Amino acid sequence: MDRISETARPRLAPHVRLVFNAARQQHALLSPETVLVLNATGAAIVQLCDSNRTIAEISAELRGQFDQVADGDVQSFVAALVTKHSMEVSHG
User: Fold this and answer.
1) For residues 33 and 53, what is the distance between their CA atoms, to the nearest angstrom?
2) Which of 26, 48, 76, 91 is at 20 to 30 A from 54, Cα to Cα?
3) What global pTM score does this model have?
């Protein structure tokens, strides 16, 4: 899956949780099979994926926080997590 619609509403898959390791100062996604370490932008995206916000709304909010958020970055990141079964999207 290359792109997700801008109207999609992403959320973490039920078996995945976002954690913060204080000793390492890093966020990670934990699932029964994997650990995925996130950078600050990735963690910010995941924190906004609450099934209420659309991809377009998440992108707009991130542009206010980070200088380097290009069009399509959020869509590509979410698509990668969907491919890894770490995130789900609803359309509506």
Assistant:
1) 27
2) 26
3) 0.89
Cα atoms found within 13 Å of the Cα of residue 8, Cβ hemisphere only: 17
Q: Are the C-beta atoms of residues 12 and 18 closer than 8 Å to each other?
A: yes
| CB 4, CB 78: distance < 8 Å | yes
> Taking CA 36 as the corner, what is the angle to CA 4 and CA 66, rounded to the nearest 5 degrees?
60
| CATH class assigned to 8-91 | alpha beta
pLDDT tens-place string over residues 22-71: 999 999 999 998 999 999 889 999 999 999 999 999 999 998 888 778 77
Q: Residues near 73 by Cβ (< 8 Å), separated by ≥ 6?
A: 41, 59
Contact 65, 21 (CB under 8 A): no
Tokens (6 digits) for 7:
């109207």
Query: Which stretch of DSSP H or E encloses residue 62?
Result: helix 55-63
Report which of 65, 16, 30 is spatially closest to residue 74, judged by C-alpha positions: 65
